[in-house]
Design a protein that fits this description.
By secondary structure, the chain is α/β, with parallel strands linked by helices. It folds into 2 domains: 4-130, Four Helix Bundle (Hemerythrin (Met), subunit A) (Up-down Bundle), CATH 1.20.120.420; 138-336, Translation initiation factor eif-2b, domain 2 (Rossmann fold, 3-Layer(aba) Sandwich), CATH 3.40.50. Helix content is 40%, strand content 17%. It has 10 helices and 16 strands. It has helices spanning 31-39, 46-62, 75-93, 100-110, 117-150, 174-183, 200-212, 224-229, 255-265, 296-299, and strands at 4-7, 10-14, 25-28, 155-159, 187-193, 216-219, 235-238, 242-244, 249-252, 269-272, 278-279, 300-301, 304-305, 318-321, 328-330, 335-336. A 7-stranded mixed beta sheet has the order 6-5-4-7-10-15-16. A 4-stranded mixed beta sheet has the order 11-8-9-14, with helices on one face. A hairpin with a 2-residue loop joins strand 12 (300-301) and strand 13. Helix 2 (46-62) runs parallel beside helix 4. The longest helix has 34 residues, at 117-150. It is globular. The two termini are 38 Å apart. The relative contact order is 0.12.
């Protein structure tokens, strides 16, 4: 099952807000609906957002021109249509600011606009296919590294948020490594953090682990560092929404606490992300814009209020792990040791 794909002139994607209760596939044929799906997290995960961005530009490019803007029409109409497309592309590019893959995917497809809608679609489908290949490569490279350094015994992995096929097109990043270990018989168990406030670990990661038949247990976010200190975890694996040039990594909130706990416990802390997540234009984590999603997600859980009316909240969706706490960054091309 693919998280996101192109089918007969439209984008089809799994609505992740409906999981684990039901698996609903949305069919999206306009950029406004796609932006809404991105912002309300119907589609999420850095690689999946890159594909969504590229396919979104294909939607924009294929949009029928306004009356009078075609061949022989008034030049002003054609100019307005071009300006409208550029505005839509910029809105799509900025729909979520922290994950660099969204803007990257938009840019890959938008660069082919002079070639027409078919050229844009070809570029977008390349982004999709490259993501599938990258996830396979990351899974193999990550599993090789863990089994080489930890030996042939089955491994217990801790992770946060969701980094499986739901965060990509297929297989995923950090959870893609887990899937490869499982397929090799090298996985003992996954300890999945619930990932407050939107519970991506509880709702999505456990759903994916159950589907692959991998042993797993759900862990409260605040219990993660303590469990690391008690031993029995062989490695922490996370994904990434943006990796700065110096190796500082933005990922789902809670990642930094795990990195601190892993360092204290002497447990390897591994970031798994495609090369496209490395942003050489961002010098360090200090320069990464961190999205705050407002108080609504904090004061209520899936529509049920858990704080008094009028309570204010801070809700950073991501944190930044300094590169000196990262054992290795595993991409589809290489293993980077930030220290």
């Amino acid at each position: 099952m693919r998280t996101i794909d192109w089918a007969e002139g439209a984008i089809e994607l799994i609505d992740q807000t409906r999981l684990p209760d039901e698996c609903v596939v949305l069919r999206i044929d306009d950029v406004d609906t796609l932006i809404d799906a991105i912002q309300r997290l119907a589609v999420r995960g850095a690689p999946a957002l890159g594909v969504a961005g590229a396919l979104g530009v294909a939607l924009i490019a294929a949009r029928a021109p306004a009356p009078g803007s075609g061949a022989g029409g008034p030049p002003a109409s054609g100019t307005r249509e071009a300006e409208a497309r550029i505005a839509d592309i910029q809105r799509l590019r900025a729909a979520r600011p922290t994950a660099v893959n969204l803007a990257w995917g938009v840019d890959q497809a938008a660069a082919c606009l002079p070639g027409g809608p078919e050229a844009v679609l070809r570029a977008a489908l390349r982004v999709r296919d490259d993501d599938i290949a990258a996830c396979v490569a990351m899974g193999e490279r990550g599993a090789d590294l863990l089994q080489r350094e930890a030996g042939p015994r089955p491994l217990r992995i801790m992770t946060v948020c969701n980094t499986g096929g739901l965060a990509a097109v297929e297989r995923g990043t950090a959870l893609g490594v887990v899937q490869t270990l499982h397929e090799r018989g090298g996985l003992a168990e996954v300890l999945a953090l619930e990932t407050r406030p939107l519970l991506q670990g509880a709702r999505l990661t456990t759903w994916e682990l159950a589907r692959m038949g991998a042993a797993h247990r759900l862990v409260a976010d605040s219990a993660g560092p303590y469990l690391l200190s008690r031993g029995g975890v062989d490695a922490v694996l996370i994904g990434a929404d943006r990796i700065a040039a110096n190796g500082d990594t933005a990922n789902k909130i809670g990642s930094y606490a795990l990195a601190l706990g892993a360092r204290r416990a002497g447990v390897p802390f591994l970031v798994v992300a495609p090369e496209t997540t490395i942003d050489q234009a961002t010098p360090s984590g200090e320069h990464i814009e961190i999205e705050d999603r407002g108080p609504g997600e904090i004061v209520a859980i899936r529509g049920t209020r858990v704080a008094p009316e009028g309570t204010q909240a801070l809700n950073p969706a991501f944190d930044v792990t300094p590169h000196d706490l990262i054992t290795a960054i595993i991409t589809d091309k290489r293993v980077i040791r930030p220290t």
